[in-house]
């Protein structure tokens, strides 16, 4: 970054974008709570409820692609503000829906709130120097805590006022924030550079997507973010069905998952700056494989034929153990979300919106596909824990592919007698394996930073 902005200006931009993203994420996941009441009113099946919960995630995912490009071209201030105002109008109009089909159409508009993520990533990254972008984006990404705001607060609004008034309150708050953002936010430091450069065509902006690495990052994000959104939507319904909780208690417990899966993203950003994103991804996938395996085990009765007769016992996960595992899963997923997005501004500083939009789109599609699949699996198998069985398969596959790709890259490096790691910020001898040979300069590598990052 040629001219680094002052720290007050950086903190101002980070604070505004993080708060705005928190509100957008709260709106994006609103059907996790009001969807349960709507399901009761309309007599929906689990598959229909899953589709209703997932529909906003579809719009939010697809919209990230063009919103990221628009942010690269026009800057985040106006794109972010207009997006919030447009979404607020869609949320308000949702309250006039009277049929399931109308609700699905309205949910498509509500989903625009999910596109705020890539707008905020591109806007926030532009304010910070490379060695601090991981931490800054981790703080911004903590806006995922908006899901906890909905899981904790929306049930009380729902019980007191009904789902229509709850949606109207959400719309009003988001509209106010949209106006505030336009008035208080400043143009990012790259605005002048964009204005002075020749506008790129769509194909030129999409050029980095030819690299397989981008799509590998997208798969990682499909789990760490897509599964996070899916569980944030599905957990209240799961807790009510499995443990017989009321909607308020289910919402509070679901918040115990969404809070660490959001706030600890800040820690994940710092750790990615300090230790490298690859190592953080290993921690994330390893812990997630273990947690999802344990969570996927359904209550089972066993009969052992003993000497003096049958011995019967039951294996089942009680509520405290379930909550503990969900908390741990959310913690490691939060680290992974930050680690994935540490890569993008390092490799593609002038294509953060385009590349981040695609990665975010694929991840968001996980948030669309998985809740729908959870409902279908429930209807087909009759096993509540089938959702965690599916998640176990996904994260195990992601871990296997990541490890294979890393080992393949290392074999190439050893054969060439040079060190070229998959992540530029890990190109330091003290991490992973020592190589005391002089390596060629990597044109993608950023300047050395403190702490071996």
TrEMBL record:
<dbReference type="GO" id="GO:0042128">
    <property type="term" value="P:nitrate assimilation"/>
</dbReference>
<feature type="transmembrane region" description="Helical">
    <location>
        <begin position="352"/>
        <end position="377"/>
    </location>
</feature>
<dbReference type="Pfam" id="PF07690">
    <property type="entry name" value="MFS_1"/>
</dbReference>
<feature type="transmembrane region" description="Helical">
    <location>
        <begin position="48"/>
        <end position="67"/>
    </location>
</feature>
<dbReference type="GO" id="GO:0015112">
    <property type="term" value="F:nitrate transmembrane transporter activity"/>
</dbReference>
<comment type="similarity">
    <text>Belongs to the major facilitator superfamily. Nitrate/nitrite porter (TC 2.A.1.8) family.</text>
</comment>
<dbReference type="InterPro" id="IPR011701">
    <property type="entry name" value="MFS"/>
</dbReference>
<dbReference type="InterPro" id="IPR020846">
    <property type="entry name" value="MFS_dom"/>
</dbReference>
<feature type="transmembrane region" description="Helical">
    <location>
        <begin position="167"/>
        <end position="185"/>
    </location>
</feature>
<keyword id="KW-1133">Transmembrane helix</keyword>
<dbReference type="GO" id="GO:0016020">
    <property type="term" value="C:membrane"/>
</dbReference>
<keyword id="KW-0472">Membrane</keyword>
<feature type="region of interest" description="Disordered">
    <location>
        <begin position="432"/>
        <end position="453"/>
    </location>
</feature>
<dbReference type="InterPro" id="IPR044772">
    <property type="entry name" value="NO3_transporter"/>
</dbReference>
<feature type="transmembrane region" description="Helical">
    <location>
        <begin position="12"/>
        <end position="36"/>
    </location>
</feature>
<protein>
    <submittedName>
        <fullName>Major facilitator superfamily transporter</fullName>
    </submittedName>
</protein>
<feature type="transmembrane region" description="Helical">
    <location>
        <begin position="74"/>
        <end position="94"/>
    </location>
</feature>
<dbReference type="InterPro" id="IPR036259">
    <property type="entry name" value="MFS_trans_sf"/>
</dbReference>
<feature type="transmembrane region" description="Helical">
    <location>
        <begin position="249"/>
        <end position="268"/>
    </location>
</feature>
<feature type="transmembrane region" description="Helical">
    <location>
        <begin position="319"/>
        <end position="340"/>
    </location>
</feature>
<keyword id="KW-0812">Transmembrane</keyword>
<feature type="compositionally biased region" description="Pro residues">
    <location>
        <begin position="443"/>
        <end position="453"/>
    </location>
</feature>
<feature type="transmembrane region" description="Helical">
    <location>
        <begin position="100"/>
        <end position="125"/>
    </location>
</feature>
<feature type="transmembrane region" description="Helical">
    <location>
        <begin position="280"/>
        <end position="299"/>
    </location>
</feature>
<feature type="transmembrane region" description="Helical">
    <location>
        <begin position="137"/>
        <end position="161"/>
    </location>
</feature>
<feature type="transmembrane region" description="Helical">
    <location>
        <begin position="219"/>
        <end position="243"/>
    </location>
</feature>
<keyword id="KW-0534">Nitrate assimilation</keyword>
<feature type="domain" description="Major facilitator superfamily (MFS) profile">
    <location>
        <begin position="10"/>
        <end position="410"/>
    </location>
</feature>
<feature type="transmembrane region" description="Helical">
    <location>
        <begin position="383"/>
        <end position="402"/>
    </location>
</feature>
């Amino acid at each position: 970054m040629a001219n680094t902005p002052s720290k007050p200006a950086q903190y101002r931009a980070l604070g505004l974008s993080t708060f705005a993203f928190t509100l957008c994420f709260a709106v994006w996941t609103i059907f996790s709570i009001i969807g349960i009441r709507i399901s009761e009113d309309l007599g929906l099946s689990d598959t229909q409820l899953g589709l209703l919960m997932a529909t906003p995630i579809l719009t939010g995912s697809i919209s990230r692609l063009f919103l990221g490009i628009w942010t690269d071209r026009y800057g985040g201030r106006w794109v972010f503000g207009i997006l919030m105002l447009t979404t607020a109008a869609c949320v308000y109009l949702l309250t006039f829906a009277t049929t399931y089909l109308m609700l699905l159409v309205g949910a498509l508009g509500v989903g625009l709130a999910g596109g705020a993520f890539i707008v905020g990533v591109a806007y926030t990254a532009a304010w910070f120097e490379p060695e601090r972008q991981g931490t800054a984006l981790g703080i911004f990404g903590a806006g995922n805590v908006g899901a906890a705001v909905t899981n904790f607060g929306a049930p009380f609004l729902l019980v007191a006022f009904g789902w229509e008034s709850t949606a109207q309150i959400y719309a009003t708050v988001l509209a106010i924030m949209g106006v505030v953002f336009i008035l208080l936010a400043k143009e990012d430091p790259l605005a002048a550079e964009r204005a002075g450069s020749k506008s790129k065509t769509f194909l030129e902006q999409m050029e980095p997507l030819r690299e397989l690495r981008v799509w590998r990052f997208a798969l990682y994000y499909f789990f760490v973010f897509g599964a996070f959104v899916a569980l944030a939507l599905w957990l209240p319904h799961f807790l009510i069905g499995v443990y017989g909780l009321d909607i308020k208690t289910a919402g509070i417990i679901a918040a115990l998952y969404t809070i660490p899966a959001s706030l600890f993203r800040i820690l994940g950003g710092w750790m990615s700056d300090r230790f490298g994103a690859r190592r953080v991804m290993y921690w994330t996938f390893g812990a997630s494989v273990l947690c999802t395996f344990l969570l996927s085990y359904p209550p089972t009765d066993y009969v052992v034929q003993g000497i003096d007769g049958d011995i019967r016992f039951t294996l089942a996960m009680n509520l405290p153990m379930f909550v503990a595992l969900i908390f741990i899963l959310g913690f490691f997923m939060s680290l992974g979300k930050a680690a994935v997005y540490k890569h993008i501004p390092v490799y593609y500083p002038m294509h953060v919106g385009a590349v981040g939009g695609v990665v975010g789109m694929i991840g968001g599609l996980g948030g669309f596909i998985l809740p729908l699949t959870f409902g279908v699996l429930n209807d087909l198998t009759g096993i509540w824990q089938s959702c965690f069985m599916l998640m176990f398969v996904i994260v195990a596959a992601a871990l296997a592919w990541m490890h294979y790709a890393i080992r393949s890259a290392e074999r190439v490096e050893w054969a060439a007698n040079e060190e070229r790691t998959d992540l530029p910020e890990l190109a330091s001898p003290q991490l992973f394996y020592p190589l005391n040979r002089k390596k060629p300069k990597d044109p993608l590598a950023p300047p050395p930073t403190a702490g071996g990052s």
